[in-house]
Amino acid sequence: MHNLDARDPLALGQQLMSVLEGGRRTATYKLATLLALLDYAVENTPVDPDAAVSVDLDDLAERVIGLYWRQVRPLDGHDLKQSSQPKARIPDAVRAFKRTSSVGEVALDVCKRRHPDPFRELRNEVKLTLVQQPLPRLQRLSKAETHTCFLYDDSWMFDRTSLASIARRGNVIELYPGVGFALARLSSLLKPALQIAWVGDVRRHNAFLKENAPDLAAHLFGMDRVSLSRVREVLMKKFGATCFYCGVRVGAGCHVDHVLPWSRVGIDGLSNLVLACTQCNGDKSNLLPAPVHVTTALGRGRTVLETLAASIDWPSQFDRTASAARGMYSTQPAGTPMWLRTREFEYLAPDFGWTTASDEVRWAAPLDGLRLKGQGHYR
């Protein structure tokens, strides 16, 4: 049964938080699933705000794997427990794959490409777990038999659901009309609350964390501990030793910045990475960037970025960056401040538009019809 007006993001957000706060979680799966759904919604925002959105369950499973990929690293010599139970299917499976597929800290996209068959097995295991556990529980206030479905139909999900059953459903869940757009709008508000709840759950499941205070939030949700030196070197060699934002000269130890902030959408592909001076990096922080920065970053060219990324065995994520940008800007209210340069902002206009094609990004009115293609220019 679906009786929630998804066109009201506030009502949807309140319902979600009621479910998450309505009972004691035994594992972090609900939080991981909702965070993955939020990112999916941002990157797949429909043009029509009232449209239904199909969520590919392989894609959702990969996003959940990506969240745990960082978290299965030992902290102070301990493997973090993510559940009150002795075994935790998802983190245990991710940890096992990571230990057998990589030496040191390697990006998930790289391990996926190097070991396609084991990764496929991992994805299927995580997908099955999602359908059997967090997805049918994400809309329940309690263990009651009846509940209101306000995100998607979960009537076919049970603890004995099989991969064959998932395949018969098209390997998707369909977000009700308006839900996908509303989740994209809520993303920047809900993500910090969900991450705080996740940190609290992990502290509760790990007694050693009560004895000292390591930076648990940074360990769980900070950038991957993959050295950015290769990224810095290849960007500097190709585009010059200058700050992407202000053009000032930078040194060998300059910052590598996420144009679309890591805290808003976790994309660390080369298409979303630029060199930045200390002043711009600190002033921009986690703020939404002015669209000119995104179009200029993507305007470096899909082929160029993918070639550079391949040369250092790094993901490019051009399409994800473009899709996430469209979702972020199209769901922000008019008047939203956007960082342009140090102590200077632009404000989102009501008639702003953003469209993408395979190798092209177009920034529509009111900003002079700016258009970038390949290695084009902006005005």
TrEMBL record:
| Domain called HNH nuclease: residue spans | 230-282
* CDD domains according to UniProt: HNHc
- What this protein is called in its record is HNH endonuclease
Q: Which GO terms describe its molecular function?
A: endonuclease activity; nucleic acid binding; zinc ion binding
Q: Taxonomic lineage of this organism?
A: Bacteria, Bacillati, Actinomycetota, Actinomycetes, Mycobacteriales
Which keywords annotate this record? Answer: Endonuclease, Hydrolase, Nuclease
